[in-house]
Design a protein that fits this description.
The chain is α+β, with helices and mostly antiparallel strands and 389 residues long. The protein is built from 14 helices and twelve strands. The strands form three sheets. Strands 5-6-1-7-8 form a five-stranded mixed beta sheet. A four-stranded antiparallel beta sheet has the order 9-12-10-11. The protein has a three-stranded mixed beta sheet with strand order 3-2-4. A hairpin with a 4-residue loop joins strand 10 and strand 11. The longest helix is centred in the last third of the chain and has 22 residues. The N and C termini lie far apart (47 Å). The C terminus is likely disordered.
Amino acid sequence: MQRWIMHVDMDAFFASVEQRDHEEYRGRPVIVGGLSARGVVATASYEARRFGVHSAMPMSTARRRCPHGIFVPGNFTLYRAVSAQIFTIFSRFSPCIEPISIDEGFLDISGMERLMKSPREYAQRLKAAVRAETGLVASVGIAPNKFLAKIASDLEKPDGLVVIGPDDIERILWPLSVRRIWGVGKKTAERLTDLGYTTVGELAQGEPARLVHALGERAARQLIALAHGQDDRPVETVREAQSVGREMTFEQDLHSREEAEEQLLALAGQVGWRLRRAGLQARTIQLKIRLADFTTYTRRRTLPEPVCYDEDIYAAARELFREFPMRGGIRLLGISGSGFDAAGEVSLFTDTQKKEELYGAIDALKKRFGENIITKAPLVQKDKPDGAQ
């Protein structure tokens, strides 16, 4: 049986919802994100992208590039509701769905030949259903695996539909830049360019020993497999959450413990907020560390009592981190909690009550003004340039 995976990606999702709901925004550059000097762009409409505005850009830069744009803070309650409507539509086309974010997901449509004339025709029906029921446009990629499907969905945006079959890999994949490969960021791309690999095809036909020497065996073999269009990962349907976590990939590798522990403090705050919002406490805290060569380590510790407060999560993660020997730059850090208990009653005879009152006040502010309204003192950088995030 031929395996077919569909990747569906909503085009400029937040901005498109705003344009759908505000007739005066249509055809004009719409930029959604944090509107403060230190805010960043969450989504830019395609009209705004023509001026060089893109997601994750400092909002101050976006204003300089597109001063006549429409800047909106966004309505994330609305976006989540529209997302739920979209994924309900997806469920009519496949029982096996893996959400990737609020506006994209994978659908496994393998073995569904009786329901479709062809994978392309099936995708056309899905796109038409999304447009008819939400007024929004989706781009779709179809391929034998997740990596190729995600590549395909991005090739003809907006309103794209691309199928990459088993015989299309060299024709479609190999001319693309190595930056298209999952896990290849700016630094890795520079290293590959130094080795003479600028396209996926050059990487696929390269000498494996050179890549192993430059990147390490694990990273090299992963990149070579993807360059040949090989990806065996299944589409993983959503189950009840087994963990609550947050991870961050850094634009520049971290090289000191002080830098890393500052990032762990920020991550602990985000994980604590998510746990408390879900009414959960975690008995096990896990630390994830990915080095510059993509080598990844995880360390976990089960605690005597379940936790949901930032300081307790940070203390456990920091203890795990201090047991880890620094071996070069750190590309990614992550913290997650698992082994859930429901949040219990507050004791009147310990400092738990004080924590509950403190974090109750903090969470009320976050709920009203956003997750970033309160920042830990060590994370405040006095000399941040305007527009930095």
